[in-house]
Amino acid sequence: MQQTILSFSYTESWIYQAIQWANQFGHFFLLDYSANPKFYPQPYDMVLGVDLYEKVDFKSIATRKNDTQDFIFLGIPYEQNSYQIEHHAAHQHQVIFEPISYKPRFLLKFKDGKLIANRNYSETMGILDAIDKMPKDIPSSTKSTQRSFTDTSWETYRKQIEKIHSDIRQGLYYELNYCQSFWKYIPKNWSPLAYFALYRTKMNMPNTALVKEMDQYILSFSPETFWIRQSSLLTAYPMKGTAAKVNDNQQNQKILHDLKNSVKEKAENLIIADLMRNDLADYAAKGSLKADALYEILEFPKIFQMISILSATLRNPNDYGEALYHALPVASMTGAPKKEVLKAITRYEKFQRNLFSGILGFWEGDLSYFAVLIRTLFYDANKNLAQWASGGAITLLSEALQEYEELLLKSRPFEESL
After folding, report:
1. What DSSP element (H or E) covers 331?
2. How many domains does the chain have?
3. Confidence band for 334, pLDDT divided at 50, 70 and 90
4. What pLDDT does 63 receive?
5. Structural domain of 379
6. Is residue 204 very low, low, confident or very high in pLDDT (cuts 50, 70, 90)?
7. Which of 11, 60, 116, 186 could bridge 144 with an S-S bond, Cβ 3.0-4.6 Å?
8. How far apart are CA 57 and CA 330, in angstroms?
9. Concatenated DSSP letters for 49-107?
10. How far apart are CA 29 and CA 12, in angstroms?
């Protein structure tokens, strides 16, 4: 396999130049892990994959073995899982993607001041030269004068929470992640590349991604890592528990203290951690499955998030693909028990989740990293349509107004910036 390794450091303007070069092709992805906190091992600082070299049969992922070091880029929708549940059809204000699974033609991986390219030296320098010819200055992002819309009003949301509480009291399930969709039609001259370049550092999230699939784009600023595989070690990071920050450090310390000690948030987090533990248990070597941390708090520019950390050694590394498929959809975006919750989500939500709450990342030999697609914008350039979604975990301790305010908090960055 061809490979070139160079000393290389990139700047914000270089990233913008790189995605402009990549945008000349029908498919590309930029995965940016440079803002990863200490909890998340960092496989690469950034990965740029450009042009579809070979499409990988998505259905083969579950049976894929560790017999190749090929880098496969994957975007797996919420609906792609082992549960035989009927899901929503999409409504007209949604941006819908097919499952994404391919090997890129050009692959540039950045780590610790080094560039690793899947091309020979001459071709690598040609790519860098082409990128360097792109405009450096990032233009301001055009804002829409139109308001955004949602598929669920406050009154409908309140009534649905009452029904979910009734289900829980009847013993159907004990936690459900309930979401709603938002959308906005934006100006034709809006640029997903400029928007991404401008907001990438402002959002400062550990899992930032820009993906192009022909005329559709994914702009993800996700705080949540699903799991990371390193050789036979699999580490999962279930996230549940959110608190908004304010512009007062002393008040933020109180908000942080309250989140750390919240009975409700810790209970929700523990339920999801336990569900993830069950997902891992069938594939873990005996005695290897453990909780490395519970109720840890990650701090981001606008919010605090609670996570737990679970790890296990794979009993058979060749079962990794099956373990991945078995764990979908992700615990933090469903609830428990999972099968009953999936049925209820179809009853109560009004949109097809598609890639929202699915996973995005890569599989490269015995290294694999997937983020959960939350805080993510989906854009269709033909329709000038931007769509996103948000929600939260509902238990008997949940109050409808507080939950509604939390989902609006999660939606606010897109609402204010588009």
Report:
1. none
2. 1
3. very high
4. 76
5. 4-417
6. confident
7. 186
8. 21
9. EEEEEEE--GGGGGG--S----EEEEEE-TT-SSS----PPPPTT------EEEEEEEE
10. 17
DSSP strand pairing (175-185 vs 303-313) = unpaired
Residue 91 confidence class, pLDDT cut points 50, 70, 90 = confident
What are the DSSP calls for 194-243, one per residue? Answer: HHHHHHHHHH--SEEEEEEETTEEEEEEE--EEEEEETTEEEE--EEEEE
Query: What pairs with residue 72 in β-bridges?
Result: 363
CATH number of the domain that residue 137 is part of: 3.60.120.10
Residue 341 phi/psi, 5-degree rounding, is -65, -40
Distance CA 133, CA 21 (A): 9
CA distance 334 to 331: 5
- ∠ Cα 359 363 368 (to 5°): 80
**Region label for 279, one of left (φ > 0), alpha (ψ between -120 and 50) or beta (otherwise):** alpha
**pLDDT for residue 20 is more than 90:** yes
Tokens of 137: 């200055």
Q: What pTM, to 2 d.p., does this model score? A: 0.95
* Among candidate residues 259, 256, 277, 377, the one with its CA nearest the CA of residue 327: 277
